[in-house]
Amino acid sequence: MSSPSTTANSTPQQATPSELEEIHQLIKTNQFVPALTALMQQVAQDVRNPKLWLLIGLAYTRMSDWKPAIEALQTVLELDPREVQAEHLMAMALFSTGRKQEACDLIDKVVKKGNLGPQWMMRAYIHAHTSRDPMLALQAARDWGRRFADPLTRKAKPLKVADRSPRKKLKVGYVTADFRQHSVAFFMQPVLAHHNPDNVEVHVYSNGPSDSTTEHMRSLVLHWLDVMEMDDEALCERIRQDEIDVLVDLSGYTQGHRLGVFARRAAPVQVTWLGYMQTLGMKAMDYRLVDEGIAPPSHAPHYSETLFYLRAMASYTPPAYAPLCEEPPMLRNGYPTLVSLNNSSKITDEMLRIWARILHEREDARLIIMVKEENPDAAQAHMQPRVETAGMPLDRVSVLHQQPLDRFMEMGHIADIVLDTSPISGGTTTLHALWMGMPIVALDAERGVDASTARILEGLGLGHWAVKSEQEYIERVLRCINNPEFLQQCRCSVTRDRLKQSGLMDYVSRTQELEDAYRLMWLNYLRGDRKALSVDVDLAQALAEMDAVA
Q1: How does pLDDT run across 224-241, given as a tens digit for each residue?
Q2: How many CB atoms lie within 10 A of CB 251?
Q3: pTM above 0.85, yes or no
Q4: Sign (positive/negative) of CA torsion 191, 167, 542, 289?
């Protein structure tokens, strides 16, 4: 995008506030093409209007198309250096393109200029995913919570709970924007399908766009409410009217969250799970569901939430279309192919340099880097300069834009070995890769939230695939390449079979365990304590004790 200019004697026709709001609504509902079409028409008439360029930057940011996003935001700041929202979005763009320290520095500067909740939340998010010090991440989250969530909690109307029976059918509400083709859906579909209607009455408060996955998940739930048009006050009141006992946040700080509802104390028990692995820093979120791999008890001081322990943190449902390629592609191609499947914001320059060393050690190896951008040009514009800077052999590296799920699940027909990222590792992509029959080489870390892949591998008895140092990572990849029999075995009898036999796909047990957790949290609420913090607590005895004092 070129710098704005105007011709002499021209009188720009400014967009009206209603026109700008209409375009903003298109962006909020992911209708990017009509939004950008309207914006380009408007900017042709009023090229020096920073509000138009800000919306252009917002649209491209939501599309994860970082090069034009950054250019548009730079234009905003040239026209209006005081536009804090442009700096806010710029920090996100820098973070998402691997420039994490620049993003930290910029967002720290932004929050000092004003007192806006989204900017302080973005600061907490960026610091949590950049700093290796969990206490710094906690402090950044509390900086947001203290300013924006906790005051709402103090001002909230008292919550009246009419039915306090320990054995009642619990009303459980899930609040999410991601019951669609999204990683959260792969964990939650088996939960919705296997909840016991004798134990729980499930309500979903959906705050996101719909697709075919949404319709399938909707069919699993009797009580489903689309809430995108409801403000936090109205939604909180509706949840109170529904008399929800346990309210579950599945978004954390991610797009479409409704943490303002939780801050207003919509339910007696409030818990966060799955959607965001870092702490939220708000007093009204009572619990965080974890397992000991993700957050051992010694890590409890890193969280503002009380940790409640499941035996396994989640269930996993593989995509319906996932054809297994039983022969490693290198046997057919004559050369090994490595692939990175994680979100491009997880790919640091340090990781790229490690991968470059592998490619220089094995001169016939190819590398595919799949990125978040949705079109090939945007993918190349983001990653190609970084690949060059890392010193990779350009003739053996391909940058692949984001693929539809069916195409993604065919990557096992193209690649032999998956390269995990650090310090932020894969999650859903790791499980998808294992289901495709590919081994994964990962770097371990102290915090489970930084090493989800390592914890998954440990749970499957494959912990030796996760290593402690960069040199071990390189050596492990090279050993895998040099062992075609191992790669063949992974596809025929290791990764997919291990998943099938694991607790991750024991849906009945996982969901029963989850319902037990909700019941124990409910008993904690009735007693006014947090004595039971694990599903290993004897629930029958706990209920009997409650009956005795009733």
Answers
A1: 999 999 999 999 999 999
A2: 22
A3: yes
A4: positive
